[in-house]
Design brief:
The protein is α+β, with helices and mostly antiparallel strands and about 1000 residues long. It is built from 28 helices and 32 strands. It is elongated and about 100 Å long.
């Protein structure tokens, strides 16, 4: 049965109870011993339930679990008269180590799971007799375990010595429950239904309807038990006849230092004066690289982790936002709803899509991340703690692929409340005439796996690539009579975000793409390439996430000679080495967003909504190569890939991370088991250059929403493997963002300070440290400078860029400056839409209602029959946040990366990538006049000239210091207001509630702005 990690009973999930180093009290007696034999209670009931229990796919999971519960409660599996067989005794699955310290004994159990007593159905026992004979007498070919065969692994307190002398018929595992395996080879590739069951009084409950905590399921197909069972030599079972009563041989035995449980120095029948303390946590499975020294950034990282964990996973109490500053500023179309009326997204418990039986085909091209979590997160076996680093409060930081990805914006993409409110505006207000196309286009990125699998399957069924829709994202399998329940697997895939197989199936480059372009998994992708990237060739065809993928039975990774058999056994998929997985083009396909420009329901052109990859390719950070060969101008002097920043494989000292890349049941590094694969197949090497899947920018606001409202977003906030041993993924991702802001984003300095008696002047210089524009990505992100003149008591005398508590930039009287809000307070009309009011790019600021804001602002097509759109077209339409209404730019003064190339050089690279020259033109700054800082890039400098007569405050208004701070806003006030004034959807209601109740006070994102970097107070001469 399954070897699983340790956790408390309250956190038991599917194979739990199987757990090894469980923090339990060892006992000198067997607490699960019963007074009478535990035998089937109702043989008629057992006979009726038997065919149901043996076919777990016949009923919906909740109904099946109810029947299985009846079956196990009636002890039907203990029917020895009808051929069920049982182990000789309760047996350990690993050593029990006693320790005497400070006058006390304690014990630590290091088994693969709690001590076991296994029951075998007659047909499974018959299979063992035919296929698992004594050594040297094995059959020529091993047959599959017959469908319907059952294994019930009862689990008892550690060590086994506590219960091993008890008659098995007088035992009932009420403490740890039992693991269940039911053979179902026609349902799942791994061939089994997996589960954990607890008798009445335990924490077990049926998985459906799912709880709003998104608990990991107790039972189901494709569960993470395979992280160990895939190491079995065949049929995902380690079972051996030696363990079974009546068969020759003896079970494996392990060291058991249990003498102190019933000490010989104690008088018989004496009451034990001291109960053994709980077992200690297991040691870390391998040395992890330590950070040499502690920089301020590292300290801030640890502090931010601790802070982020305070409000994580704590649902807020139901309340109304009415009369709050948020409600006074933001109006919502339709009355705001209280929490109990907010539509929550389906819990992640439902996000379970496994590989179908047989060799994987395009029908199983995409699977959910729960198929990867058992192996590719830390602590999956309970005994090994690779892929971790020491952190605070005796916890571990999970640096595994799953652990770092899950709490990132990529991992949350399918549940992002801001995205879904944006989509609602697009289809309700901006482009309702093109609703189907818009939904399919947008969900092709944020819900990529659901959208793609839906296209694959509908093409087979109807001959057409049917459009994917927003309502499918909410599809779930319960209740089973819901008409959309049949679409539940597409909803699960979409909600899983930009998940594991979305990237690890990718094929980039003409050579590799040509070998798979005609395969069924790519037919709909090619249609999408034609629609979104007309006329493009080569890599440019893949823009907007339109990359091709390899076969369903292959996943690509960066390491050579991967071990293949475990993954093959678990999923039918083989890992393969690929250099392209480390190329920037892997990121550039999605982070170059090329979209149609829609007007009155028709496409009038195409433009770029996002150019993060081209910005990098046109900078000093470019590597100068692509999967199709060298690019013009070669590598830049600061060359590094996207992954170098967003998937770091070195620590702060530059030392490569070293770790195994999976957590599985190995041969050499695991308690011995029978019938495993050979050591060469399952002993994993330590890899140097192990990359963290951090994948973060600076969107702390999204992570705050996820941490504080996991139930509304359907998020599983706690780590399903490390549990209390590890820091949860969302606060860990937030800490990574804060570290990135502090150390890797920008610098700000104040210099050339002068006081001529009439005015105080200073030059503020911002240096961009990222490999693309800052901000980059979606166009509504922005950064701005807060410039303060301070008196001797640090009181603000004069300020450009101050905000209120909602992140609105205000003047010295507290009024929003020009361009901060687009709508009148009641959403009745836009504020002077024809004027396209905004803050221009400044080279000198002299007033407190002027602020240097680094941003991109775009305008929609004017409402005329034949609008003109494109690069350089004079603004004519209103400012817009619609991704499919980008007629042209009003402003783009985002900080350029270092070494930004000339237009001619950029055009050469654009064409070499298969795009058109307008990609180079689209990255040009707009509205910066002839600011020399925007010729070669790297940053910006401007002068603040403050009239001394305008100073006020204590100390007679005498300036003592100047301070400049760079702030970042992922969701500026004008963007939120545009969401609330352009949609009545439940998605918009959800965002309104979450944003309106978000607690940011005392966090790095206080007042809806993330502090990136500050100059600190600089003295005035």
């Amino acid at each position: 049965m399954t070897a699983i990690k340790s956790r408390t009973i309250a956190a038991l999930t599917i194979c739990v109870g199987l757990l090894s180093s469980l923090a339990v009290r060892a006992s000198p007696s067997c607490p699960d011993e019963q007074a009478s034999p535990q035998i089937p209670k109702d043989l008629v009931l057992c006979a009726r339930l038997e065919p149901i229990v043996r076919n777990p796919s016949r009923l919906p999971l909740n109904e099946y679990e109810a029947k299985l519960s009846e079956y196990l409660n009636a002890l039907c599996h203990r029917d020895m008269q009808n051929g069920w067989r049982v182990d000789k005794r309760v047996r350990d699955t690993g050593p029990f180590v006693g320790t005497y310290s400070d006058g006390k004994w304690s014990g630590q159990y290091l088994g693969t799971h709690a001590p076991v007593l296994i029951w075998y159905s007659p047909d499974f026992f018959a299979w063992l007799k035919a296929n698992r004979l004594e050594e040297g007498a094995a059959p020529a070919s091993v047959q599959p375990v017959p469908d319907g065969a059952i294994i019930i692994k009862e689990m008892y307190p550690a060590p086994a010595a506590a219960c091993s002398d008890v008659d098995p018929m007088k035992l009932l595992p009420k403490t740890n429950g039992a693991a269940v395996m039911v053979r179902a080879s026609m349902v799942a590739n791994d061939g089994w239904f997996w589960g954990w069951y607890g008798w009445p009084g335990s924490v077990w409950s049926a998985d459906w309807p799912a709880k709003n905590t998104s608990s990991y399921p107790n039972m189901g197909f494709g569960q993470y038990c395979t992280n160990c069972h895939a190491s079995a030599k065949d049929n995902q079972t380690f079972s051996t006849l030696k363990n079974i009563k009546g068969e020759p041989g003896a079970p494996l035995v392990f060291l058991s230092q249990n003498v102190f449980l019933n000490p010989p120095w104690q008088k018989p029948n004496a009451v034990t004066a001291q109960q053994p303390p709980p077992v200690a946590s297991p040691p870390i499975g391998m040395p992890t690289p330590s950070l040499p020294g502690r920089s301020n950034a590292a300290q801030n990282l640890q502090l931010s982790i601790a802070e982020a964990g305070k409000n994580a996973s704590v649902p807020q109490e139901p309340k109304r936002i009415a009369n709050s500053p948020f409600a006074n500023l933001f109006h919502l179309l339709g009355a705001p709803r209280p929490r109990d009326q907010i539509a929550a997204m389906p819990p992640a418990t439902y996000d379970n899509v496994w590989v179908k039986p047989g060799a994987p085909t395009a029908a199983s091209q995409y699977i959910t991340s729960d198929q990867c979590v058992g192996c590719h997160t830390a602590g999956g076996t309970g005994l090994q703690f690779d892929m971790t680093q020491p952190a605070t409060d005796r916890q571990l930081l999970n640096i595994s692929p799953y652990g770092t990805w899950r709490g990132s914006p990529m991992g949350l993409a399918g549940r992002d409340p801001v995205f879904f409110a944006q989509l609602a505006s697009e289809i309700e207000t901006f482009h309702h005439e093109s609703s189907a196309m818009v939904q399919d286009t947008c969900l092709g990125c944020h819900g990529i796996m659901g959208q793609r699998q839906f296209g694959i399957d509908t093409l087979v069924a109807t001959g057409k690539c049917e459009p994917f829709s927003r309502d499918i994202v909410d599809a779930k399998p319960f209740p089973s009579d819901d008409p959309v329940a049949k679409l539940a697997h597409y909803g699960a895939l979409a909600r899983d975000g930009v998940s594991c197989v979305a990237c690890h199936h990718m094929v980039i480059g003409n050579k590799d793409s040509s070998t798979v372009q005609d395969e069924p998994q790519n037919k709909c992708v090619q249609e999408r390439q034609t629609a979104l990237n007309p006329g493009f060739t080569g890599f440019a065809k893949t823009f907007t996430g339109n990359f091709l993928v390899g076969p369903a039975d292959r996943l690509y990774g960066p390491f050579e000679e991967p071990k293949t058999k475990s993954m093959k056994n678990a999923l039918g998929i083989e890992p393969a080495h690929s250099l392209t997985i480390k190329s920037s083009e892997l990121c550039g396909s999605c982070h170059t967003v090329h979209l149609p420009v829609l007007h009155r329901g028709r496409t009038i052109g195409h433009t770029y909504e996002q150019t993060t990859y081209p910005e990098w390719a046109f900078s000093d950070y470019r590597t100068g190569v692509s999967p199709d060969g060298p690019l013009p101008l070669g590598a830049g002097p600061l060359a590094q890939s996207c992954q170098a920043c967003h998937m770091p494989n070195k620590d702060v000292a530059g030392n490569p991370y070293r770790s195994k890349i999976a957590s599985i049941q190995e041969y050499t590094n695991f308690p011995q088991a029978e019938n495993t694969l050979a050591p060469a197949d399952i002993d994993l090497p330590i890899r140097e250059g192990f990359a963290k899947h951090t994948l973060v920018g600076l969107n702390v606001f999204l992570l705050k929403m996820a941490a504080q409202f996991p139930d509304l977003l359907g998020i599983r906030a706690s780590d399903p493997m490390l549990t209390s041993k590890g820091i949860d993924s969302i606060p860990a991702s937030e800490a990574a963002m804060i570290e990135q802001a502090l150390t890797k984003t920008a610098t700000v300095t104040v210099g050339d300070i002068k006081n001529d008696g009439k005015s105080l002047s200073a030059r503020v210089t911002i240096i961009n440290q990222v490999g693309h524009k800052f901000p980059s990505g979606v166009g509504f992100r922005r950064a701005f400078i807060e410039f303060n003149v301070l008196d001797a008591g640090n009181q603000v005398l004069w300020s450009s860029g101050r905000t209120n508590s909602l992140g609105v930039i205000v003047d010295d009287k507290g009024a929003p400056i020009v361009g901060e809000l687009w709508w009148k307070n009641d959403c009745s009309a836009r504020i002077d839409p024809d004027a396209r009011l905004h803050q221009p790019h400044y080279r000198e600021i002299t007033r407190q209602d002027q602020t240097q804001i680094y941003q991109e602002l775009v305008f929609a097509p004017p409402d005329v029959a034949a609008p003109r759109c494109g690069v350089g077209v004079p603004p004519a339409g209103v400012l817009t946040t619609s991704f499919l209404s980008i007629c042209g730019k009003v402003k783009d003064n985002r900080l350029l990366p270092h070494g930004f190339l000339s237009l001619g050089d950029r055009k050469a690279i654009a064409v070499a990538l298969g795009a058109k020259e307008d990609m180079a033109e689209d990255t040009d700054p707009v509205g910066v006049d002839d600011d020399p800082d925007y010729r070669r890039g790297g940053g910006d400098s401007l002068v603040y000239r403050v009239p001394l007569a305008a100073l006020n405050g204590k100390g007679g208004g005498k300036p003592a210091a100047i301070q400049a701070t760079l702030y970042y806003q992922a969701t500026p006030p004008f963007f939120l207001q545009d969401r609330f004034c352009t949609s009545k959807s439940s998605d918009t209601q959800r965002l309104y509630y979450v944003a309106g109740n978000l607690k940011l006070a005392g966090t790095p994102a206080q007042d809806w702005k993330l502090r990136v970097v500050t100059s600190g107070p600089v003295s005035v001469p």
